[in-house]
Design goal:
With about 140 residues, this protein is mostly beta strands. It has one domain. Helices cover about 10% and strands about 55% of the residues. The chain has two helices and seven strands. It has a seven-stranded antiparallel beta sheet. Strand 1 and strand 2 form a beta hairpin. The longest helix has 7 residues. The protein is globular.
Length: about 140
């Protein structure tokens, strides 16, 4: 869930909540590159993945473009302005693992960039996943 959620969270808000200011982000086909490093009991070297997503004008109006696959998470912080978006989520995991994710993004019209940190704790051991996200509009959907 974490990797899929972090990739989807390259765009950041809660579905169904109207926002007062439209984010500075153009609708269209977007490509996101996420570089992630995991540290903890088992360090995992930096890995990079890319995914594409169609972002519609309607999704931007309602902030639906910003989150998916987070229904089970509690939203502790949600901030959206024209040029920035940020959130903190607490998500239950399997076998009592809780994941706390924080992400802050800069919205630059046809580009986005930001960082996220996910902290997990299980059986007295903790793990941290840090990701850099860069997105760019690549055309129409």
């Amino acid at each position: 869930m974490c990797h899929k959620t972090l990739t989807a969270l390259a765009l950041v808000c809660v579905p169904g909540l109207a926002i007062a200011v439209q984010p500075n982000m153009e609708p269209g086909q977007w490509e996101y590159t996420t570089t992630t490093r995991i540290s903890g009991p088992m360090d995992i070297p930096e890995q990079t993945s890319t995914h594409s997503q169609c972002v519609t004008e309607g999704e931007l109006d309602e902030a639906d473009a910003f989150m998916e696959d987070v229904e089970e998470c509690e939203v502790e912080r949600r901030e959206v302005s024209a040029d920035k978006a940020g959130f903190t989520l607490v998500c239950p995991g399997q076998q009592g693992v809780e994941v706390r994710m924080t992400m802050d993004m800069r919205l630059l019209g046809d580009r986005v960039e930001g960082e996220s940190v996910a902290k997990m704790s299980m059986s007295g051991q903790s793990m941290e996943m840090r990701s850099r996200v860069e997105g760019r509009r690549v055309g129409d959907c």
